[in-house]
Amino acid sequence: LLSNGYQVNQLTRTGNLLEVKFNGKGSSRPNLSVLAGVKQQLVWLQLENCQLEDADLPALASLTSLFKLNLNRNPISEKGLSFLPALTKLEYLNLYGTQVSEAGLPLLTSLPALKKLYLW
User: Fold this and answer.
1) What is the pLDDT of residue 66?
2) Contact between 45 and 67 (Cβ < 8 Å)
């Protein structure tokens, strides 16, 4: 993960829960496929302002342990959110500064664990 531009933080001393943040430089885009290696431990994922597109997002569907996801400031729309129903533990979702419109609200309200949504 580190060699692919990600920062990894262990969230607990005794457990193996992870927060992963993409810190790529400039116009680099994240390689989402490398996240599969930590999908059981990955609970917080920050992919802000990294040029993600709708076509990239279905790769996140296998990250079913996520409860916090930050996708703000990416040129994505509700079309790319088709992976969301697989994230049944997702409690926090940040879509600030995206192109997600009112048409995406029914999909967002179908998330059973969602408690905080940032969308404007």
Assistant:
1) 97
2) no
